[in-house]
Write a structure and sequence with these properties.
The complex is a heterodimer of chains A (about 325) and B (about 120).
Chain A lengths: L1 E5 L3 H13 L3 E5 L2 H8 L7 E5 L7 H10 L7 E6 L4 H9 L4 E4 L4 H33 L9 H17 L5 E7 L2 H8 L1 H18 L5 E4 L4 E6 L7 H13 L3 E3 L2 E3 L3 E7 L8 H17 L5 E4 L16 E4 L1
Parallel strand pairs in A: 1-2, 1-3, 3-4, 4-5, 11-12, 12-13
Antiparallel strand pairs in A: 6-8, 6-11, 7-8, 9-10
Helix pairs in contact in A: 2-3, 7-8, 8-9
Chain B lengths: L2 H5 L7 H7 L4 H27 L3 H17 L3 H16 L2 H30 L1
Helix pairs in contact in B: 3-4, 3-6, 4-5, 5-6
Classes of the chains: A alpha/beta (about 325), B mainly alpha (about 120).
């Protein structure tokens, strides 16, 4: 485990360095508080630190305070080394953010024991962070497909619409529904139905850019959000997404299946500032029209006042709706 | 024995304590003594200048550094003298500070031959 020693006094620093190396630590030793902060600020920096109280540049309590104000960092367990012995100074040291303190000259066994306490605290912290991240993932992702769940994708739609309006860009919203999915479930069973959903999710993810979003909107419905999407290219992008589902058979436990998807497409720049609910209602209507038109195609939701561009610029499977 | 000496406690050099601290690692011990031999005179010189200039802040800081260095090496009496100097400097007591510096130099003069003797002994 990595550990930082910060002490301006060379004898103590060397003694600590050697003692800790012998205990199996990967030691970085520095001679002032400024360098200590640099080391502790590194992405993969030490998470255990022994800090002398009195140091040039920044003293030990100053280092503790600075580290504790950094919120986006893994917890650092800090032990202040002090020859100061009064209760007031001990309180001051702990109040600055130190986890523990040791009086110099230190006893080797006590030092090791206190650092083991630090390691246990860090281990517990790691487990807590991991548990919290797992809970966060479960709260925002669909357990079957691992896509964003309905709540999370709707939050993202709202955020992206707000952002694109502010930046005067266009966000493309696609609502896709697997055609005849009920038939898959009824014919092959729910296990195969689940396989189909997982494969569709993977294909959708593979068809978008890393900064676009895909979520499971409902049973076999998926919502895709294409950020900063040029309105002229959006129908082509939607077509690529549609083909990503239909252009290859899906291998399942019960054999290979052909799958298609109908999609509604909406471009935020064409609708102006509208509520998320209204835009989703409009893209849902467009999806409904794609289904009514024979499935495996795309319909674009357009406000009633818009003029339809020449049909030649759109792929055959893409048509406008009003 | 003067008044300053009387109030200082502990051994001039507690080798047993130091050996325990370094886990009986003779090489490390020599390493520490070498660092001490280089750093101690420089720090003492800076301290003498600070005391002469009545620079209490730097006197306190250097006294603190010496206290840490000496206590790590088991130089208990000299460390105690450095600690007292640090207190005097922090309190801004000019007259006492000069007395504390003399006491520190006196204790250091007793400690250094013991360290030198040990270094010479382990070298052979």
């Amino acid at each position: 485990m990595k550990i930082l020693i910060a002490d301006d006094e060379a004898v103590s620093r060397r003694l600590l360095e050697k003692t800790l190396e012998r205990s199996g630590y990967d030691v970085t030793a520095v001679e002032n508080g400024k360098r200590a902060l640099e080391e502790l600020g590194k992405l993969d920096g030490p998470r255990l630190a022994l800090l002398d109280w009195v140091m040039p540049e920044v003293d030990g309590p100053g280092v503790c305070r600075a580290v504790r104000t950094r919120s986006q960092q893994a917890y650092v367990y800090m032990v202040l080394l002090t020859s100061k012995g009064t209760k007031e100074e001990t309180v001051l040291g702990l109040e600055s953010g130190a986890d523990d303190y040791l009086t110099k000259p230190f006893n080797v066994e006590e030092l090791r024991a206190r650092l083991r306490v630090g390691e246990r605290i860090l281990l517990l912290e790691d487990r807590l962070v991991e548990a919290r991240e797992n809970m966060r993932f479960r709260a925002t992702h669909d357990p079957l497909t691992s896509l964003l769940n309905r709540g999370a994708i709707l939050d993202l739609v709202a955020r992206e619409l707000h952002r694109s309006h502010r930046e005067q860009k266009s966000t493309a919203i696609l609502l896709g529904d697997i055609d005849h999915f009920k038939r898959v479930n009824d014919t092959y069973g729910h296990v195969v139905g689940d396989e189909v959903l997982v494969e569709a999710a993977n294909r959708l993810l593979g068809a978008v850019r890393s900064y676009d979003f895909v979520g499971r909107y409902g049973g076999e419905e998926f919502l895709v959000v294409l950020n900063s999407c040029d309105p002229h290219f959006a129908p082509g992008r939607a077509e690529e997404i549609r083909k990503s589902i239909s252009n290859r058979v899906i291998q399942t436990a019960k054999g290979s299946l052909t799958l298609t998807m109908s999609l509604g497409l909406l471009l935020s720049s064409e609708w102006g500032p509208r509520s998320v609910e209204e835009l989703l209602h409009q893209v849902d209507n467009a999806l409904y029209e794609a289904k009514a038109a024979g499935r495996n195609c795309i319909r674009i939701a357009k406000p009633a006042t818009m003029v339809e561009p020449a049909p030649a610029v759109l792929p055959q499977s893409v048509r406008l709706r009003r | 024995m003067n008044k300053n000496e009387e109030s200082l406690s502990g051994q001039v050099w507690n080798l047993a304590e130091l050996l325990a601290r370094v886990d009986n690692d003779q090489e490390l011990l020599r390493d520490l003594l070498t660092i001490f031999k280089e750093d101690f005179p420089l720090t003492m010189r800076s301290l003498e200048l600070a005391v002469a200039a009545e620079d209490f802040k730097n006197s306190a800081r250097l006294g603190h550094t010496l206290k840490g260095m000496l206590s790590s090496l088991g130089g208990q009496r000299t460390a105690a003298a450095a600690a007292r100097l640090e207190v005097m400097a922090s309190a801004g007591e000019t007259a006492s500070l000069k007395g504390a510096l003399d006491a520190l130099k006196h204790e250091a003069a007793r400690l250094q031959p013991e360290l030198d003797a040990y270094m010479s002994e382990v070298r052979h």
